[in-house]
Specification:
By secondary structure, the protein is mainly α. It is built from 6 helices and no strands. It is globular, with a radius of gyration of 15 Å.
Length: 111
Amino acid sequence: MAMHTAILTRHAGTAALIEALRIGAALPEPRLEALRRFTAAVLDHLGDVPDEELAAFLAAGWRPRHALDAVLGIGAYTISTFANRLLHAPLDPAHSRSGAVRGRGGVGSVV
């Protein structure tokens, strides 16, 4: 979570956006909210996203290739997280200076 907080901060992510993402609250921008909900659906349904949830994602202005991008991102993130946990990788000092904290699950955790 620390790395993601630092990246969002560098890209002018507001404290409100970062907090909403951390607690799973709805995002104020509809397109980002659709992406957040779609990503959660991919995880919740282990990739077998119900048609109505994919349709809602596409109705928000995303394209099918963006759905695949989200799945690719989840996969890359999962591999990285598993490797970091296996190796007990330390938090990068640059990220710890950002004021961010690790998730409860350890390095790379989203909770």
